[in-house]
Amino acid sequence: MGRFTDAQRASQNRLWERYWADPTDHDVFQDLVASYQNFVFLLARQQTPACESPDDYVQVANIGLVKAIRRFQPNKFNTKFTTYASLTIIGELQRHRRDTGWSVHVPRRLTELYFKFRKLEEQFRQ
């Protein structure tokens, strides 16, 4: 995944400070979301199946980013935001793939078993 430059990191730190000072400031929130768009795009591109449009996955990844920004508490999680956000974004992408990947409704437990089976099948083939 791409790395942030020192200037980008400093800019993001200032945005975070402004966001924590006033979480209701919509402009700061939008700037914060915009500053992580390359990160979101990379995660979405990695998670997009070859047969699907990456645009949908970028939108879903942005939903995950918004959730991550709203929920992130550095004192509580004791981790970098990108670590926390990547887990949230990937979870959102997996949920999207699971929910939209079937033409008929299949219970969640069965779809999860299906994906586990597919991973095991791929490992055995190698």
How many separate helices? 7
Q: Kindly, what is the distance between the CA atoms of the first and last residues, rounded to a whole number of angstroms? A: 26 Å
Q: What's the order of the H and E elements? A: HHHHHHH
Structural class of the helix and strand makeup? mainly alpha
Oligomer: single chain
Helical proportion? Answer: over 70%
Mean pLDDT across every amino acid position: 88
Which value, in Å, is the CA radius of gyration? Answer: 17 Å
Q: Please tally the β strands and state the result.
A: 0
- List low-pLDDT spans: none
Shape: elongated
Strand coverage percent: under 5%
Main beta sheet: none
Description:
The protein has about 130 residues and is mostly helical. It is built from seven helices and no strands. The protein has helices spanning about 5-20, 25-35, 35-45, 55-70, 75, 80-100, 110-125. α4 (about 55-70) packs across α6 (about 80-100). The chain is elongated and about 50 Å long. The two termini are about 25 Å apart. The mean pLDDT is about 90.
Provide the descriptors you would attach to this structure in a database record.
126 residues; mainly alpha; 7 helices; 0% strand
Topology:
Blueprint: H1 6-21, H2 26-35, H3 37-47, H4 54-71, H5 74-77, H6 81-100, H7 108-125
Helix pairs in contact: 1-2, 3-4, 3-6, 4-6
